[in-house]
Amino acid sequence: MSALAGRCACGAVTVRAEGLSDRLSACWCEPCRRWSGLVGMGIEVAEAGFAAEGPVQVWESSAIGRRAFCGVCGSALGFWPLTGAAVVEPCPGLFENAGGAVLHHENFVEKRPPAIRFDPEPDQLSAADYAARAPVVETAEPVPDPLAGGCACGAVRFRLDAAGEDCGACHCATCRAWTGGIFVGVTTRGAALHVEQGEEHLLRWQSSDRVERVSCGLCGGKLWYRVTAPEGDRVGGEAGDVDICLGALDDMTGRPLRREIFIEAKPAGYAFAAETERLTGAEAKAR
After folding, report:
1. Per the CB 3.0–4.6 Å rule, which of 12, 48, 95, 221 could disulfide with 99?
2. For 144-178, what is each residue's pLDDT tens digit?
3. C-alpha distances in Å from residue 182, one per residue of 169, 207, 250, 262
4. For residue 234, what pLDDT is reported?
């Protein structure tokens, strides 16, 4: 593929990739899902063919890799191996139409929530399958709790009094760039969200006059999207609503995917298998 230009959600970080693969990968391991807010997605490119400029922050997530994010908006930029590999994996959300890449395989599929499936189903790799091909660092499994969660590095922890029984996806350009792939959230009221640890580490970005997006400033882990619009302005949700990133919760199971918005902006290279209500951006704004 020819050279492609991309950017983070706020535009502070710009990237250029030459020779980007046409294969997209998805990873459900613990660090990936908490860092991205759902599933870590990447497209391989030779390290020599990739460049990023701007306020890039790096979190050394393990002895084998680093994860880069924008220091202004928290957008996921990509995974950089520390094992001498000559490739890096920028996130598809940086590029228009995910750079034209098509979902090729999923890693750590046993950790994927039952409600989330892709159609067509890509190649399926378990943790054991992946470990046979590449180095793996084991991480502690959280105690299943659908009302507790935190970031990828553990600096931020939160608890909910209550939350919605289902989840929804947004494919708008801002959500895709911020998460690096796909935003899927669980709605609750702002008063039901309690930060129990790491308030000082929250990276807040006002992505519009109606919405604030929050991630961890240490690791870039995606946490939630808060509607800051005045009462009566329902664009993006009800005033005071918070959409918790599904991947930030300790337990991702038990919440079916019910709706997708900005469906016209979804990249062509992947699709959910679930039967969902699918709305265009205009239709979502009209509600």
Report:
1. 95
2. 899 999 999 999 999 999 999 999 999 999 999 99
3. 7, 17, 18, 12
4. 54
Indicate the average pLDDT of the chain: 92
191-202 burial by CB neighbour count: b if 16+ within 10 A, else e? eebebeebeebb
Structure tokens at 80: 């950089």
For residues 244 and 185, the answer to whether their CB atoms sit within 8 Å is yes
Residue 141 has a CB neighbour count (10 Å cut-off) of: 9
CATH class of 4-131: mainly beta
What type of residue sits at position 110? E
**In CATH, what class is 148-286?**
mainly beta
Query: CA–CA separation, 82 vs 197, rounded Å?
Result: 30
Name the segment(s) of the chain with CATH classification 2.170.150.70: 4-131, 148-286
